[in-house]
Every structure is written in C-alpha cells, then in structure tokens.
Design a protein that fits this description.
The structure holds 3 protein chains of 3 kinds.
Chain A lengths: L4 E2 L3 E3 L5 E9 L1 H4 L9 E2 L10 H19 L9 E5 L6 H10 L3 E3 L6 H14 L5 E8 L1 H8 L15 E2 L2 E8 L12 E7 L14 H20 L8 E4 L3 H14 L4 H7 E3 L15 E2 L1 H17 L5 E5 L1 E3 L14 E3 L1 E6 L1
Parallel strand pairs in A: 3-4, 5-6, 5-7, 8-13, 11-12, 11-14
Antiparallel strand pairs in A: 1-2, 2-10, 3-9, 3-10, 7-9, 10-17, 14-17, 15-16
Chain B lengths: L1 H16 L7 H28 L4 H21 L3 H8 L1 H4 L2 H14 L5 H8 L1 H27 L1
Helix pairs in contact in B: 2-3, 3-6, 6-7, 6-8
Chain C lengths: L1 H22 L4 H17 L3 H8 L1 H4 L2 H18 L1 H29 L8
Helix pairs in contact in C: 2-5, 5-6
Chain lengths: 346, 151, 118
C-alpha cells in the first residue's frame, strides 16, 4: 500500500498540495538588507511593542501566520492544523502563538531546518487527505537566541569571523489541498516531492562554526534526493540551503564537486539563504542563521520569484544544527540536519 | 571505532578551517594593546591626582577601582560597552572593566525574570565563576601560607 | 616614565588576552577566570609583586591584578593567623566587589538591554 514513497528517504505528492498563502515579518536589520523590500512587515523596533523579546518573536510569528492565512483568503477558523517551531526552549514562540490563534497545533523542533520540516509535514498532511488547509511556519529572533545559546547581548565579547547572525524574522505559508486551492492566483506553486534528512555529525564542536557543522547534512540530503528522484542538479532552476552562511556554502559547493557534480552547474543552480538575507557591509561575519532566515527568504523572496515565474522549479533545503544549550558544555559535537521540499510552478 | 570517529572529525575540522577567514591577529592585538594601555595610564593619572590631594596610596587605589567598575557598568547599561569591546576586544575585557561588564550584561537581559531570580541570579552567571575560582584559590594560598608559617 | 611603563605593561597583558581569544576557542568567562587565577598563583610565588612595583596601575588594573590583591590579602592575613588568612582575600578586594555588586544591581534595574542596530 505504500504508494507515495520513493527511494530510501523521499516521498512524492500525488494530490498536488498547493501553496496558497505566504506571510512574513522581518526585523529592523533584516529590513535594511538586500531583500528588505520583499517582506510584508519590517519592524522599526525589534521589541515590536512588546515587553520581552520572546513576546516580540511570538508576535512576529503570529503576524506572519495571519498574513499567510489572509493571502490564502482564510481566517484562522478555516485552518485545520498549524505547524511551527522556533529556537527557544519548549518552543515558547510557537506555543504562545498557538495559544492566541486557537488553531489545532503541532509544535516542531528542527532548529533552523524548521521551515522546511513544517512545510514537508504540511504537504504530507494535505496530500494524504488529513487536512484541507495547513499553516506551516518558523521564527527566530536575534536577542532571544543569543541569550539562550550564546552570550548576553550587552556583553563585550568579539564575534569571530565564522560566527553567524541569527535572523530576527518569521515566515509562514498556507498549504492547501489541490481542489481547495484559490484558483485566482496566476501561477500556482505546488509541493511536488520531499526528502526527509538524516542527522549527520561531522564532529565540529565550535558553536561559531555552524555552517561547517551543517554542510555535510545538506550534501547528504541533496545527494539522496537526487538519487531517490533520479534527477540531476539542473532539473531545478534553483537549489537553496537554509543558513549555511558564507563558509558553509563554500564547503557545500566543494563537497558537491567532490561528489562528482558539475562545478559550473553547482555555481549557477545553488545558493544559500544565509548569504542572501544580509549584505556583507552589515557586519554579520559568516552570514545569517536561525529558523527565520530560510522562513523569511523563502516566503518573502523565493516564493515571490516563483509567483512571477522567474523560478519554475525550486528545491528548498533548510538546514539545522541540533545542538542543545548544554550539549557543547558536555563536549558533544554539533549534529546537523537538512530536509528538502521540491516546489514547482504549474 | 571511537578513535576512528575522532580522526574523521579532526580531518573535517581541518578541511573546514581552510574555508574560514582568519581573525585579524595583528590589528586586534594592536587595538587591545593601545586601549588596555590607555585604561591603565588614565587610572594611574587619576590615582596620582588623588594621592596629590592627600589620600593614601592604598585608598587612592581603591577609589580608582571603584571608578573603573562604575564607569564600565554605566557604559554597559547605556549599551555602549559592547560597541567599544567590539573594537577593543581584550583591551577592555582584561582590565577590571571586563569583570564589571560581565556582571551587568547578563543581569540586564534577565530583567523580565524578576529582581531576585532574574537580575540577582544572573549577575553571577559570568562573574560567579571568576569570583569562585579567584577567591577559593586565594583562600587556599592563605591557608598554605598559614600552615607554612606554623612549621 | 611611570606612565610609560603603566601603558606598556597594561597593554601587553591585554594583548596576551587578545591572542588567547583569537587563537583558542576560549570564551570570555574562561579568559577572565584564567587571568584572575594566574594573578593569584603568580603572587603566591611572589612573582607578581615585582611587576606591580615596576608598572603600578599597569599591573593592578588588569584582571591578574585582581588575583594579585586576593592573594596578597590572603598572604598578609596568614601572618596574623588562620582566620585572617581566610578573611584576607575578601577584605582586600571588598571595595571593588562591593561596588561591582551594588552599582551593577542598580544599573541592571534602571536600564534595559538594546537590540544591536545596523
């Protein structure tokens, strides 16, 4: 009876789950980056009128969710399930968003890979006929992540050149069943197949080397996706990883070339959200990171490009570093993960 | 098996390092040298003014420490210290100013968790280990010297 | 000349810290601990006093100077007796620690942290 699984790790969607809405909120610094124009809401103050940074992040996620639902022409009552995650302990932002929206909720933790993870599961739910409309999203906030995983914001420490900047951003999409999709959209984006990633640990222990820690997982997922689907890299107009940053992107390209992929093809078909969100002059060292990075770049920039027909086939691969707040102190290395969802315009 | 895993991890770390830009060792060191030197010189000048005003050298030293600590903490509260430290690095972290900053920075951030378990507890999240290690090693030195004096 | 040596000594100690931070993966709290404890140990071996005599504030303002004061208090106390050996370290640094605690607490209650701009 297994009809929708292909290869070792991949699934195909046969019932055309469709992305009918997208929404995002970006922080002040993100708004000043090269993609600033693409975002629905750009914050003037990273507190977002709230009393704590955690509340601000939660509000950002909520606004992104509501915006996505509104674009799909839906109210929260129309949504069957909400899937989301963030970087905070016990998924504070997501759970507190779900407290307000009253949508049936499944919390997900995939660190920075959460956007793809939620999109993947949303597509599965819709494709399997278990839901008509599913909200999928993720968020991160520089100040909440920084104080949980690293040093206090006002502490006078210098960031090494490899350190990445956690994006203050949230993004969400509505995935709807094919027949329920809003037909008025000019070009519609469908989830076509997906690959669930394996945890790969290359042994990196430095929390300032996230890109290097996650790149092997991204390579693993991409190669397995191509093998499972029998495709070559240039099947896609664009393959984007989540937040490998400048260093991780270079490593990824080098590893892919080692795996026998055409160098020129890698160069023209592959990019990384972590290198797209900020410009180098914004002093972010290794590039952007965090759940919000791929969530905002995907919902703000990439989906827009697809709607305009500039990208026809996209492979979104958010990458996550599955370290905990205590594991580095116990001498553990950083496990990496990456999931892939193939999207196409029809 | 375990050793083999370690070897692979080491090889990958070395591989990843060639993609990682190096910090500007020389520039950072020069900045730390200059700023650290200036802090020490200014505090010496301040101390000399105090002793010239009739204060004993010991009291003047204590006042200098108090002034440095208070200045660093005020700058931290104003959100300026991290900007200075980004430039000067160890130049402001290694002097007593870095210790003062390490108390206020986490405490500020945990304000929402209350004045006791938030601010009160978090003041020691970075400074605590410094005090614990410094004071206990000094007490150990005291006891060793006391024992040595008895025999 | 007094100022010159204070400048150079303070600068050199800070440069050592910078090199440690850049070349190792040591985080700031560990650097602070290393510096304070090394000040304690150096003074226990009577090695830090000469630097202080030579450089004045150049040696007392950096964190090894804090360790130096702690150890000096302990060693002076040890001459008076067991109790003084234990109270010595805190006594000699009480003003600094007291200010850091009280003023730090006050500052933390007054100000709020800012999200980095740019």
């Amino acid at each position: 009876m297994i009809r929708k699984k292909i290869g070792r790790q991949s699934v195909v969607f046969t019932e055309s789950p469709c992305i009918t809405g997208r929404g995002n909120v970006a922080g002040e610094k993100e708004g000043k980056g090269p993609l600033g124009e693409c975002f629905d809401i750009v914050l003037k103050d990273d507190m977002y009128g709230e009393k704590s940074w955690e509340k601000a992040e939660s509000k950002m996620l909520k606004e992104a969710m509501l915006k996505a639902a509104a674009r799909a022409g839906k109210t929260p009552e129309d949504i069957d399930v909400m899937l989301s995650g963030d970087l905070l302990n016990q998924l504070m932002s997501s759970s507190f968003t779900a407290r307000d929206t009253h949508i049936p909720f499944l919390g997900l933790y995939g660190a920075c890979s959460t956007m793809t993870e939620s999109l993947l599961i949303a597509s599965v739910l819709v494709d399997g006929g278990y839901a008509r409309h599913v909200l999928a999203g993720a968020s991160s906030h520089f100040c909440t992540a920084e104080r949980q995983f690293r040093m206090p914001v006002e502490h006078g420490n210098q960031r090494p050149p490899s350190a990445q900047w956690t994006a203050t951003a949230a993004g969400a999409v509505v995935v709807s069943a094919g027949e329920a999709a809003n037909l008025s959209l000019k070009s519609r984006v469908y989830a076509e197949s997906a690959t669930i990633g394996r945890v790969i640990d290359a042994g990196i222990k430095d929390a300032n080397q996230m890109g290097a820690a996650m790149a092997p997982a991204a390579v693993d997922t991409l190669l397995n996706h191509l093998e499972d689907t029998g495709r070559s890299l240039d099947y896609y107009d664009m393959v984007v990883t989540g937040d490998l940053g400048y260093i991780g992107k270079d490593i990824m390209m080098d590893l892919l070339a080692d795996a026998g992929l055409n160098k020129k093809m890698i160069f023209t078909h592959y990019d990384d959200c972590g290198t797209m969100l900020f410009s180098k002059s914004q002093d972010v060292h290794g590039g952007a990171s965090g759940c919000g990075c791929s969530a905002a770049v995907f919902t703000g920039h990439l989906l827009k490009q697809m709607e305009q027909g500039k990208i026809k086939k996209l492979l979104l691969m958010s990458t996550g570093a599955l370290l905990s707040t205590i594991s580095p102190f116990q001498g553990e290395s950083i496990p990496g993960i990456a999931h892939a969802v193939s999207l196409e315009v029809r | 098996m375990e050793g083999e895993k370690k070897e692979i991890a080491k090889a990958y770390e070395k591989y990843a390092r060639q993609f990682t830009p190096k910090p500007d060792y020389l520039g950072n060191s020069i900045k730390a040298f200059l700023v650290g030197g200036v802090i020490c010189t200014v505090s010496l000048w301040f101390q000399n003014r105090l002793t010239a005003g009739g204060m004993t050298e010991k009291d003047a030293g204590i006042f200098v420490t108090i002034a440095l600590v208070a200045a660093a903490q005020l700058l931290t509260g104003l959100g300026v210290f991290d900007v200075i430290a980004k430039f000067a690095g160890a130049g402001v972290i290694v002097p007593i100013t870095g210790f003062a900053n390490s108390m206020v920075a986490p405490a500020l951030e945990y304000k929402k968790e209350g004045p006791v378990l938030g601010v009160g507890a978090k003041m020691f999240s970075v400074a605590g280990p410094v005090l614990v290690c410094g004071i206990s090693s000094a007490v150990a030195v005291g006891i060793i010297y006391w024992l040595a004096g008895r025999f | 000349m007094e100022y010159f040596w204070a400048f150079v000594t303070g600068g050199v100690i800070c440069t050592i810290g910078q090199i440690l931070m850049d070349t190792t993966k040591l985080t700031a709290p560990r650097i602070l601990v290393i510096f304070v404890v090394s000040g304690v140990i150096l003074q226990a071996l009577h090695l830090y006093q000469p630097i202080v005599d030579f450089a004045g504030n150049g040696a007392t303002v950096p964190l090894p100077g804090f360790g130096y004061s702690l150890a000096k208090g302990a060693m002076e106390g040890a001459e008076k007796g067991f109790l003084a050996a234990i109270t010595g370290p805190l006594k000699s640094t009480a003003a600094g620690i007291g200010t850091a605690l009280t003023f730090g607490y006050l500052i933390s209650l007054i100000f709020t942290p800012k999200s980095p701009k740019r």
